[in-house]
Amino acid sequence: MKKELLYELITGTFVLLFLYTGLSKILDFKNFEVSMWFQHMPRWITLPMIYLLPASEIIVAILLISGKSRIAGLYLFLLMMAGFSLYVGTAMLHLFPKAPCACGGVIKSLGWGPHFILNLLFTGLASLALRHYRHQRRSTRNPKAIQAQNISRARNQVNTGPAVKPLNITK
Predict the structure, then answer these.
(1) Which of 137, 140, 52 is nearest to 102 (CA)?
(2) Span 13-55, pLDDT tens digits
(3) What is the dihedral of CA 104, 105, 109, 113, to 10 degrees?
(4) Using CA atoms, how far apart are residues 88 and 116, in angstroms rounded to an integer?
């Protein structure tokens, strides 16, 4: 039960993070738009990204709330965090002459180092949560099949154990 609560808290943190950053970008849209135009990506992709990024963060947060869509939300969260981490990593390596941060809220005030660590932390937690919820879904999808599989494994371990030689008690 404690383990389940831990993963619920982790997922709740993801929801809060993406709601916060997505809504911050919308509420401060002019600054977000300006920083997006200074990103190092082709111009033809910038305009759609200006609208898709905040909307995607909010949609992913909503997907993470429901148990039925949580795994899909975790995959999308993981993908987006990996992309954000890649961008922050390239900024840290100075691969661009100038790399503005288009993050929302107080996260944009972080330096590149703390930002990268935060992104890696969230990426790692998302991987763990995804593994947990996928395992949970498999075990609750067909409990009788899983119970039979576990019994079969136990029998195989018993049957394939070390051979016991009969004792020779002749004198």
Answers:
(1) 52
(2) 999 999 999 999 999 999 999 999 988 888 899 999 999 999 9
(3) -60
(4) 6
Query: What pLDDT is attached to residue 111?
Result: 85
How far apart, in whole angstroms, are the C-alpha atoms of residue 57 and residue 62?
Answer: 9
Q: Over the range 70-83, which residues count as b (16 or more CB within 10 Å of their CB) and which as e?
A: bbebbebbbebbbe
Helix (H, G, I), strand (E, B) or coil at 115: helix
Q: What is the dihedral of CA 118, 107, 92, 79, to 10 degrees?
A: 60
User: What is the identity of the amino acid at 89?
Assistant: G
| Close Cβ partners of 115 (under 8 Å, ≥ 6 residues apart) | 88, 101, 103, 107
SS3 of 49-105: the string is HHHHHHHHHHHHHHHHHCCCCHHHHHHHHHHHHHHHHHHHHHHHCCCCCCCCCCCCH
Q: How far apart are CA 112 and CA 94, in angstroms?
A: 11
Nearest Cα neighbor of 119 from 87, 74, 72, 71 is 87
